[in-house]
Amino acid sequence: MRLNQNTLLLGKKVVLVPYTSEHVPRYHEWMKSEELQHLTASEPLSLEQEYAMQRSWREDADKCTFIVLDAEKWQAQPGATEESCMVGDVNLFLTDLEDPTLGEIEVMIAGWVGVGTSLLAPLSSPLLDLTKFEAKIGQGNEPSIRMFQKLHFEQVAVSSVFQEVTLRLTVSESEHHWLLEQTSHVEEKPYRDGSAEPC
């Protein structure tokens, strides 16, 4: 999404950076995992298809994609590439044309836990102007369901056809205050295609 293409979000445990072509090879390797394909309801893509997907996401006005980096590794190792620090991604989609305040969120963490509340940072951005967030998760993906519930998402629907649950966070005044509290440590910094330096 063009909105976040120059934005880096620095948290205590994770750093969120825009999804660029530098990240595609590692992302492609992750998505070869049958377990991740199952948990994310994804089909395997070729490397060329993955590059094409990254380009389309980058230009799409209805998607906001961040790659999640391990902040400790990224900051502690001078010259560490972003690819070597990658641990997952966060995607926001505008999916309901009739409700521009609703965004769908997807989080994928590839074999790493303890990401903390920094993942909420994109949700608290005033630039997005969203007040409701939904996550659609496979019924068997208990770790993801628990993570979203910990982040104040509540179950609102179950689809036996798609075997998924829908969780929603409605950002009331109290939830907005909670979001700001949880993300007060996150610093927004400029980002230019991998040129941002660890602090």
Automatic annotation (TrEMBL):
What Pfam families does the entry give? Acetyltransf_3 (PF13302)
E.C. no = 2.3.1.308
- According to its UniProt record, which reaction does this protein catalyse? N-terminal L-methionyl-[tubulin] + acetyl-CoA = N-terminal N(alpha)-acetyl-L-methionyl-[tubulin] + CoA + H(+)
Annotated ranges, domain N-acetyltransferase: 14-154
Q: Which domain of life is it from?
A: Eukaryota
Per UniProt, which keywords does this protein have? Acyltransferase, Transferase
| MF (Gene Ontology) | tubulin N-terminal-methionine acetyltransferase activity
Family, similarity comment: Belongs to the acetyltransferase family. GNAT subfamily.
Say what the protein does. N-acetyltransferase that mediates the acetylation of the N-terminal residues of alpha- and beta-tubulin.
Q: What is this protein called?
A: Alpha/beta-tubulin-N-acetyltransferase 9
What organism is listed for this UniProt entry?
Answer: Cebus imitator
